[in-house]
Amino acid sequence: MKILNVLIVSAALLFGSIASAQQQNLASLTIEQAVAKSRQFPAVSASEEQVNAASAGLRLARTNYLPTINAVGQINRATRNNVFGLLLPQTVIPNMSGPVLGTNDGKTVWGSAAGILVSWEPFDFGRRRALVRSAEATRQRTQRSAERTRFEIETETAAAFLTVVASEQTVRAAQSAVDRANVLVRSVKALVDAKLRAGADLSRADTELDASQTQLLQARESADVAKTSLAEFTGMDLKKLVIAPGRLLDALSGASGAPPDLTGNPSAKEQIAVVEESRARVAVLQHSYRPTFALEGAAYGRGSGALTNGSTLGGWNGLAPNYFNAGVGFTVNFALLNLPSIRAQKAQEEAVGRSAAATYRQVLAGLQQQRNAAQATLQQARRIAGVMPKEVQDARTGFTQANAQYKAGLTNIVAVAEAQRLLAQAEIDDSLAKLAVWRAWLQAQIVDGDISPFLKEASR
């Protein structure tokens, strides 16, 4: 007996620990937590990496202020025959220095060279500053794009969460309908068995039960599909996804306020950043038609086994530099015929900027239209949610009365079935009406560009 008691206690402890572990794995997920998890969505990470790339581009633009230092070293073994005459610029024939010997000698000598060139642009008429500002504008635009992407993922996650809540409420209402249908079937069966009702009534009650069970299966299917979308955004295992509705099942009150400045919406911010980026590129082109100045200093050494009198040095002579030079200078370059090309590029970029500005105005107009629609939807959803409790109560009273009248023989099974369907639909409509108010408010918050008030209210 004692051994049996020990086994029972051990089994209870084991199952208790398993249940506790399962409960820990199935911890409820609030809407705030779901939105926070969505920030790890791949699209968000990809946009953040674009910001990192633009930041690196800004650092690259700033390096234009630094001098360039180039070093070179080489050794060669070649013939030393030099030719008098013109050679057009090309990249195939190596350069040759030294006097023309007038002979064609096939002997080779060692040659070497080593040098360093420092070059710096002392003034640039504002072009480097324009390049830096252009890079800054690009970084700002990618930053705004990342914010818009993050905001869209967060809002889609919040909407998916609402859909899951709505689908679960539909499942609960459908389950209640099944339970009532089961009670009705048992009640009708008792009356049929007592010869108080015809067998057709039981068939009709069974039909209503089958229909309610089908509706329950469809509701569960919709709930599973909704959870799949939420699991995608949050990165959670679908089997472990359990949500905590918070206040989403309560009536929403006080969700209003003065219309905000729609320029704060992430989409509007992104588009104005596109406009500023185009303007920055135009500024770069405005500073492109100009001469370039380079302050240069060089030091180098050359080695050669060839002598100017036509003789050569043997051995390793020329393998290391044996003649050295140094110098400083100032170089000016001006591409005179680049002006038509720069003007065409500028005209093209200005057209792009005007298009971006027009798109910005269109975005603002679209946001205003969306806000008006969201406010209208919110007001209508509030009205519908306000009348739903009475509809549910009326439907419940009607079902109770129809059931009582059927048992008393004052009505038929069709009236009971109809009252039961009306009650099931009213319960579903009531839960969805409350959520419709929250969803309409969420849409208004999306247009405003900030859903934090919605998340705070829903999780309170």
Features of this protein?
460 residues; alpha+beta; Outer membrane efflux proteins (OEP); 2 domains; 9 helices; disordered N terminus
Q: Gist?
A:
With 460 residues, this protein is an alpha+beta fold.
CATH architecture of the largest domain: Up-down Bundle
- Total count of domains: 2
Q: Structural class per helix/strand content? A: alpha+beta
End-to-end Cα distance, whole Å, is 52 Å
Instruction: Estimate the strand proportion.
Output: 5-15%
Report the total helices. 9
Topology overview:
Layout: H1 2-25, E1 28-29, H2 31-38, H3 42-62, E2 68-79, E3 108-120, H4 127-193, H5 199-234, E4 242-243, H6 266-286, E5 292-304, E6 323-333, H7 339-407, H8 413-448, H9 452-459
Parallel strand pairs: 1-4
Antiparallel strand pairs: 2-3, 3-5, 5-6
How would you describe the overall organization of this protein?
α2 crosses α4 (127-193), α3 runs antiparallel to α4 (127-193) and α4 runs antiparallel to α8. The chain has 9 helices and 6 strands. The protein has helices at residues 2-25, 31-38, 42-62, 127-193, 199-234, 266-286, 339-407, 413-448, 452-459, and strands spanning 28-29, 68-79, 108-120, 242-243, 292-304, 323-333. With 460 residues, it is α+β, with helices and mostly antiparallel strands. The protein starts with a helix and ends with a helix. The strands form 2 sheets. It has a 4-stranded antiparallel beta sheet with strand order 2-3-5-6, with no helix packed on it.
